[in-house]
Fold this sequence. Notes:
alpha+beta
Amino acid sequence: MDSLNFSDFLSPIQLKWIQTGVVILTALILSQASKIWANRALAEFDMDLQRRRLAVKTLALIILLISIILITAIWGLKHDYFLLFISSALTILGVGFFAQWSLLSNITSGLILYFHHPLKLGDTVEIVDKDAPMKGTIYDITYFFIHIKNEKGEIFTVPNTEILNKTIHINPKQTKAPEN
């Protein structure tokens, strides 16, 4: 007796749609599981919330890229065309980064701030600048910008390169002492 095969009951297109659905479903499950795992693991190392968010975003991006590669393989995109597409996309990105050099420097500055700068969410900072001084609380830290909320509740975005290039006075987030 011959063994049963899915291809006996489904057309090749139907099989590709099912495989694509499985990849998407697996990616969604992995994304949620990695979010939970990363938050737990990084909390054990006493990583602050912003760094955990960035790690989760990075894991989600990696899962997305792997899913795209798998889906292109399922649908039979030839390797030559795929490599042509990747090289074209990288060329366009390279031209874009060259045209917007500040964008690349903001990404690099964001990585430096992530690994080697004492800024944390909730810290009060004062940017010492004669032209545009600013004081407020760090509201969010992203790949390109730091969002600062001033006393009036206004939120300003400051490019990461400005944070590295300017003198900054940092007042760490105050934690309440236990009351007796």
